Amino acid sequence: MHSLFNLLLSALGLDTTTRAGSALLFFVADSVKVLLILFIAISTIGVLRSYVSKENIQKYLGGKHKFISSFAAALFAIFTPFCSCSSIPIFLSLVKMRVPFASAICFLAVSPLVNEYLVVLMPNYYGLPIVIIYILGGIFLGMSVGWMLEKMGMEKYLEPAFLEGEPDFQNFPTFKSRLNFGLNEGKDIVKRLWIWILLGVGVGAIIHGYVPDSYITKVVNAGGIFSVPLAALIGAPVYGSCAGVVPIALIFFGKPVALGTVLAFLMSVSAMSLPEAVILRGAMKLKLLLTFFGLVFLGIILMGYFINLVAPLVI
Q: What mean pLDDT do residues 231-252 have?
């Protein structure tokens, strides 16, 4: 795609070898690429999610075998392209349906941690093996958090008011209705996010064209061995959806920056946020809320270090 837009801009008389030309090429090509990928990914996942029913959730997530139930919850979470705040209503629905507590927590953790859009974009930069490690690492982290909270008896710290009532599920009589649901979801989400995506890509284009790789590396790695926890700590207050972190990711992908450090920041942006804490506070008592965030934050740091360790071996 860069080659196509390079030819188009060159035909218009723009020199893409200059800093300004390089930045403009990056902005145009990556804006189109990101918006197109997001629309296709969101629409496809929307169609797949239309097949999820109350009966399926109770069958696969409500199973008595802890591993199978939690793993199914993690897979379900991967197919929900939401930020942490958007996944909370589904988490509450799972709780109301009496899905095992560990599985519900696993969904809540994995949904923002394993970013579907990064999964689509990363192979082009780092190859498929590291993407598989990223996915499996996020699943393992979510399952571990769920099991630990259940083992600690934290289920009793859910607010009783949120255990009442039954969630509703939309019916789709034909594949056309499922396809329309997916396309409408893709259109609606991209429509809400496009301006922020363009702004993010614009920042990335400026950095791409004017900021040397050596400077980016120096800034990101300034924390030395503590760069991973610092990245996670910095990312926590920066609220962003799974789609919203894509422009941020493009700033660093392809740069000589440790991948685990970048992913620690991106995962923290998606999974650790004040809006999420405020919403969850209505469903969880403070002890459960703080313990959940603490375990997720620790898991992000450990996963960042692990990816930094294995990335040079598989990329």
A: 70
Q: Which residues contact 82 (CB under 8 A, 6 or more apart)?
A: 90, 111, 112, 241, 242
Q: Where are the domains of the chain?
A: 2-9+16-314
For residue 154, the tally of other CB atoms under 10 A from its CB is 22
User: DSSP letters along 155-181, please?
Assistant: GGGB-GGGGSS--------SHHHHHHH
- Say if CB 267 and CB 145 are below 8 A apart: no
C-alpha span between 40 and 76 (Å, rounded): 19
Tokens representing 307 are: 């990816």
- Calculate the dihedral angle through the C-alpha atoms of 89, 95, 99, 105, rounding to the nearest 10 degrees: 70
Find the mean pLDDT for residues 212-235.
75
Contact 264, 306 (CB under 8 A): no
* First vs last C-alpha separation in the chain: 23
Q: What is the pLDDT of residue 118?
A: 81
Pick from 196, 186, 270: nearest CA to 235: 270
- How many angstroms separate the CA atoms of 260 and 300, rounded? 9
Question: CA-CA distance, 86 to 275, in Å (whole number)?
Answer: 10
Neighbouring C-beta atoms of residue 33, cutoff 10 Å? 18
Q: DSSP characters for 181-231?
A: HHHHHHHHHHHHHHHHHHHHHHHHHHHHHHS-HHHHHHHHGGGGGGHHHHH
Amino acid at 204: G
Q: Is the pLDDT of residue 76 over 70?
A: yes
The pTM of the whole model exceeds 0.85 = no
Q: What pLDDT sits at residue 154?
A: 93
Q: How many residues does the structure list for the chain?
A: 315
The rounded mean pLDDT for the chain is: 79
The answer, yes or no, to whether residue 239 has pLDDT greater than 60, is no
pLDDT reading at 90 higher than 60: yes
| CA dist list (Å): 141 to 20, 67, 146, 273 | 42, 13, 9, 18
Q: How far is CA 190 from CA 37, 47, 51, in A?
A: 10, 16, 22
